Each structure stands twice: as C-alpha cells, then as structure tokens.
Amino acid sequence: MAGAEGDDSLYPIAVLIDELRNEDVQLRLNSIKKLSTIALALGVERTRTELLPFLTDTIYDEDEVLLALAEQLGNFTMLVGGPEYVHCLLPPLESLATVEETVVRDKAVESLRKISQEHSPVDLEVHFEPLVKRLASGDWFTSRTSACGLFSVCYPRVSSTVKAEIRQYFRTLCSDDTPMVRRAAASKLGEFAKVLELDYVKSDIIPLFTALASDEQDSVRLLAVEACVSIATLLPQEDLEGLVMPTLRQAAEDKSWRVRYMVADKFSELQKAVGPEITKNDLVPAFQSLLKDCEAEVRAAAANKVKEFCENLPEDSRENIIMNHVLPCVKELVSDTNQHVKSALASVIMGLSTILGKDNTVEHLLPLFLAQLKDECPEVRLNIISNLDCVNEVIGIRQLSQSLLPAIVELAEDAKWRVRLAIIEYMPLLAGQLGVEFFDEKLNSLCMAWLVDHVYAIREAATCNLMKLVEKFGAEWAQNTIVPKVLGMANDPNYLHRMTTLFCINALCEACGEEITTKHMLPIVLKMSNDQVANVRFNVAKCLQKIGPVVDSNSLQTEVKPVLEKLATDQDMDVKYFAQEAISVLALA
Questions:
Q1: Using CA atoms, how far apart are residues 473 and 169, in angstroms rounded to an integer?
Q2: SS3 readout for 136-153
Q3: Distance CA 490, CA 502 (A)
Q4: The domain spanning residue 581 has which CATH number?
Q5: What is the DSSP letter of 293?
Q6: CB 154 within 8 A of CB 128
Q7: pLDDT tens digits for 22-80?
Q8: Does the CA dihedral 138-140-144-147 come out positive or negative?
Q9: Rounded to an integer, what distance in angstroms lies between the CA atom of residue 356 and that of residue 133?
Q10: Does residue 442 lie in a domain region?
Q11: What protein family is recorded (predicted)?
C-alpha cells in the first residue's frame, strides 16, 4: 500500500506522457490544455526538473498542439516557482519560436514577450538576451523572424553595451537575405524605434527606415510605411522634413499599388504625426494624387479618409484647401467607375457638410449627394440615406426636403423591387431624422403604398417598417394615421391585400397596446374569419393567437374563443390546424 501511495505522485506525469504520446491528436491537445493542473499536482520543483525538459524534448507535434503549448507556457511563471525561476520556461519557448508554422511562432513570441517582463534586469541579460541573440543568428529564417519581435521588450532594461549589440542585431536583420525576415523586421521597426534613445532613432532607425522603404519587395516597403507613423511622432518637427518626408513622398508614388494603398490607409495618422505645416505643403498634393490613383483600391482607401483628412486640416486654411484641392477630386469620385470607391466616398461625404457650413453644402455638396442618391449601386444610396442627419443639422429640414426628398420618393417607387426594399429598410431611420410632422406630410403615403406592392418581400418589409414607426412615434400617432388605413384594407377585393391587414395587426398589436387592439383591430380580425379564402382564414387563426395576449381577458373568452372554436371545425386542414394550435397556446380549451 505504501508503495502505491509513493506512486501516486508520479501518476499525473505518467498520464501526461501517455496522453502526449497517444495517436489521437485530440487527446494530446486535451493533455496540453491541462498542463497547469498537472504542474500544480507535480509542484514547482518537479515541474522545473521533469515536466519542462519533457516538453522541450517533445516539440515535434501537430501545429494545433504546439499552439496550445506556446500559449500555456506564457502563463506558467508561478507554476515554476515565480519570477526567480521564470528563465526555466525559455528552452521550450525558444524551440517553439523556431517551428515552421507561423501562428505557433507568433504565439511563442507573444509568450516570450509576456515572461520577459517577469525577468529581473540581471536575469534578462544572463538568460533572455542570449536567447534573442541565438534566434537572431539562427540558420533558419523562422528563428530570425521570431527574434524581430523580442528586441523591443529587452532593450529598455539592459546595459548600454548590450543595447549596442541589440541595435547591431536589428540592423543585420533589416538587411537579411530572406524577404520574410526583412518583412518581420519592418513590421517591428516602429515598435523598436519607440524604445530607442532619440539620437539612435536618428542615427540607426532612419537609415533602416529609408532602406526598408526602398526594398525590392513591396510587402517590405508597405510595412515601412506603417512604421513611418511611429517614427514621425518621435522626431522633433524640424527633423521631419529632412529625415522622413522624402521617403514618405516616394512611398505615396510607389510603383506598387499595395504600398500606395498603405499610405492612403494610414493617411490620417500620418497627418497628425507630421503636423499642419507639412500637411499643407506635402500631404495635400499627395492626398490629391491618391484620390486620383489609377488603382481602385487606393482610391477607395483615400476616399474613406476624406472627412478625417479635412477635419484635421489647419483651421486657418481648411476651407480654402477643401474647396480648391479636395472637392474637385471628390466630384470626380462621385462618378467613379468602381462601386467600392463610390461606396467608400458615400460613407463619409455627408460629414463634409458640418466642416464646410450651410452655404457651401447647398451650393457644392447637395448636387453630389443627389447624384449619389441616384447611383445604381445600392450601397452608395444607403450610405447617403443613413447619414442624412448630419446634413439636416447643417442646412435644415426645408432645404433637405426640397432637394433630396424627390430623389428618395423616386427610389421608393423604383421598378426594381430590391431598390424599393432598400429604401423601406431605411424609412424608420429617415422618419427619426425628419420628425413626425414632416413624415406624415411627405412619406406616410409611400409607406402605405408599399403594403399593397405586388412583391411579397416588399409587403413583408413594409409591415415591419410600420411596427418600427409606431415604436418611434407612439400608439396615439398609430391610431390616428396608420390603423384606419390598415383596417380599411380588410375589405380589399385582392385576398393578398386582405392578408396584409392581418400581418400588420400581428406586427402592430404590441406597440399599439390593449385598448387600440381590442377596440379597433379585434373586430376586423373576427369579421375576417368568414373570408371565402382559406389562406385568409388560417391567417386569422394565427393572428388571433398573436393578439390574444394583448386583448383584454373578457374579449378573449367571449369573442376570440367562439371564433377559434368555429375555425377548428373548418373544412380546410390548415385552418383547422392553426385554429387548434391557437386554442392550445392561448389556453382556451
């Protein structure tokens, strides 16, 4: 027995070893995910002396298992005895940082960055920094790419001699023969620059930035553009023109569209980093050429930044720059051949009205909004409609209704049903922006017309739209404007329109409340139970089931119950079925 007890302490590691060697990947994965439990059972010493060496030796598994292991080890500090022993976690993580699968390496680097913070400055130099050097000078590109992510975490906490070595290693990796390594170095350039002393930013980082920004691989050059934002924020204003701007100008005109795209995508951040003077002299022309780029993706990325760019312009020259330099390009983009470009522009163009003010909006922007409202691409139209409120704030409802409303009405009656559907879906938004009086005067009749549209999807959306309008404007408004018109359709010769009445009642009963439902809607539904068309009758049963919980209990027993009982004996199978279901759900049996 005593022997068995002694074996108990070995049991967890034995199970782990068995499971880690199991052919079933899922079992191996489960075992890795339970590592912390196993480490707790073993205690800190055995975790250090048995578990970690075992794990280090078994790093030749499926990527999924290795990924889980890399993640687990990042949270292992306390399980090996705290910060004093954290360096014990480095060997397995170092191995994981050299594997072929990128996601595993990235996770290993993430865990190494995490545990680097738990090393004392001495341990960092004795254990962590040599690991970084080994990775940086590894034979395989995989280890060298991983090293790029570790320089910035150890640099601030080591001696000046070691700092010099780290800078040298980073320089070497920036000119590595393998594009993947240069790419990794370029992606960490901005991060590394942030931890360097300013003198070294100028002497080391700027030459590296210039070299990477003119690398033969566009994937490296575009990452250098990303680093440009960080570097520009670190340098004093007077150094920017000489050290950063020539490279940035070159990137904005790069032969690869992906590099130009990155410049366009980061434009607002670059603008904030370089300040107003350089923006006026350098970035305005660069922005113009990006808006006119031959590649649609670049134009779309630049179009997306139009509002932000204009907002961040220096106040004294903002209007002048927009009117003379930005707006002419924007006018061209409104009729661009690519729908992504037009859509990107439509999502931000309305925001220009608050920047330019009422007169400029009416004179210059409204014609553009109108053109976009009539665009054949639905996304463009919807981006305009969904941003109407900011124009409304600037020019007022009267001006808006005179100019844009006819276009909206035209779309609401468009021959293509998908266009009509798109407008319906935006009607509650429009109603909220324009107010109840304006809505009743201009748009109410449209909403009612959709209820008798020949396309079912439109009738269905129109019903849903009414419910949202009632939620917005209230039950009293519904009783005065919507309900009478809906109930009037109950006598329509077309059975589809009669059914729409029932669908509307289903949608409106809760929003309208007990009184309106019992007093006005219920009598109509009960009367329709005698309809000649079976489809209408079974929808009456479904409707009664829906409004049952809303009407008062007296009406439920005296009016609803007899009608449902009558429908439950109907000759039509469907009518019978839905009537019986309603009786059961409403507990009227």
A1: 67
A2: HCCCCHHHHHHHHCCHHH
A3: 8
A4: 1.25.10.10
A5: -
A6: yes
A7: 777 777 777 777 778 778 877 888 888 878 888 777 766 677 888 888 888 888 888 77
A8: negative
A9: 56
A10: no
A11: Belongs to the phosphatase 2A regulatory subunit A family.
